[in-house]
Write the structure tokens for this entry.
Amino acid sequence: MDRTIWLDGKLVPESEAKISVFDHGLLYGDGIFEGIRFYNGRVFRLEEHTKRLFLSAKAILLKLPWTEEEVNQAVCETVRANGLQDGYIRLVITRGVGGLGLNPYLCETPSMFIIASTISLYPQEHYEKGLELITCGTRRPAPGALSPQVKSLNYLNNVMAKAEAIKAGCVEGLMLNEQGYVAECTGDNIFLVKGGKVFTPPISDGSLDGITRQVIFELCAAAGLTLEEKTLTRYDVFTADECFLTGTAAEVIPATKLDEREIGAGVPGPVTQQLLAAFIEVTRSTGTPF
Ligand code: PMP
């Protein structure tokens, strides 16, 4: 399949979408990205993704030559050019071409490319039966290093954690912060249900401020479920009634085991199922038409 890629203002065939070997996005992971979904001809939470993208850019001193509106238009244009109704968008901005040193100020122009494609992150059976997690030895970097809130191209930390999970026969792994508290998973935020209440760690415990996480906050409020941001330990996960993960690619997925301990009854629980159904409803009925 030769997809059509948006690259620096032009729609080009995939085979012609090329980035320089001197681009600092490649040389140093110096850049940012977003993963965005579209359902039924509408881009889901497009403005929220663009806002987070611009905050990431600001945090890493990356001056963007596009407005948020221009980025939104470029996203919609890319999806239209690929003739898809449902799928996944990967939007990447690199620092651009520079010298062989770290100096970001030698990179004059950032590059942006946008891919629209299809995705299926986890097998369907995990949505029905739940997935199993291990705790990864690789920790989330401390906020004093690169903030986990920046969705940067520097994902090696998460890639190493993901490798640990896969080696252990799992598709996703739990990541702790430097203090040993629950931060998130390698590419997803984490939620627990206990005594009818929903819990998730605060962003300050080392997670990305997930757009899907935000949607869960709204769905809990609409369903009259109490949601609390609380520092959590592995013990809290072991002893929770339910656990689920959220992410743009993963959507909402139950987790039923951590480090060989069954979570709750070891099957997706009622609150998870309720929120999963509500999530499917909101994603299929709202968004920016393209
Ligand atoms: N945490 C990490 C580390 C992620 O990469 C992601 C996105 N895949 C998430 C959480 C979930 O964020 P969102 O809901 O915005 O996709």
